[in-house]
Amino acid sequence: MSTETKNYITLQQFLKLKDIISSGGEAKFFLAENDVRVNGETEKRRGRKLYPGDVVTVKGRKFEISE
């Protein structure tokens, strides 16, 4: 068993943290209607785990996930 701590954030949590969406319920619709990329690949899953070093691109803005 690993004693590793949780070191990720979900895409939905990230979008809320950056004030791109105002609630978790908006995530599904936002991802369906907007081009969101994680490490250059289109992502539609709101539960996608983001780890330190991942790069998220939303509406032409790039964000690097840090610890």
Characterization of the model:
The chain is of the alpha+beta class and 67 residues long. It has 2 helices and 6 strands. It has helices at residues 11-17, 24-33, and strands at residues 9-10, 36-38, 41-42, 49-50, 55-58, 61-64. The strands form 2 sheets. Strands 3-2-5-6 form a 4-stranded antiparallel β-sheet, with no helix packed on it. A two-stranded antiparallel ribbon has the order 1-4. It starts with 8 loop residues before the first strand and ends with a strand. The mean pLDDT is 92.
Question: How are the SSEs placed, and which strands pair?
Answer:
Blueprint: E1 9-10, H1 11-17, H2 24-33, E2 36-38, E3 41-42, E4 49-50, E5 55-58, E6 61-64
Antiparallel strand pairs: 1-4, 2-3, 2-5, 5-6
Q: What are its keywords?
A:
67 residues, alpha+beta, globular
CATH class: Alpha Beta
Q: Radius of gyration, rounded?
A: 12 Å
Q: Which spans of ≥5 residues are poorly predicted at pLDDT below 50?
A: none
Secondary structure category = alpha+beta
> Could you give the order of strands across the largest sheet?
3-2-5-6
Q: How many distinct folded domains?
A: 1
State the helix count: 2
Distance between the termini: 23 Å
CATH H-tier superfamily: RNA-binding S4 domain
What's the β-strand tally? 6
Q: Please identify the oligomeric state.
A: single chain
Average pLDDT, rounded to a whole number, is 92
From the coordinates shown, what is the CATH architecture?
Roll
Largest sheet: 4 strands, antiparallel
Shape: globular
Helix content: 25-40%
What would the CATH topology be?
Answer: Structural Genomics Hypothetical 15.5 Kd Protein In mrcA-pckA Intergenic Region, Chain A
How are helices and strands ordered from N to C? EHHEEEEE
Strand content: 25-35%
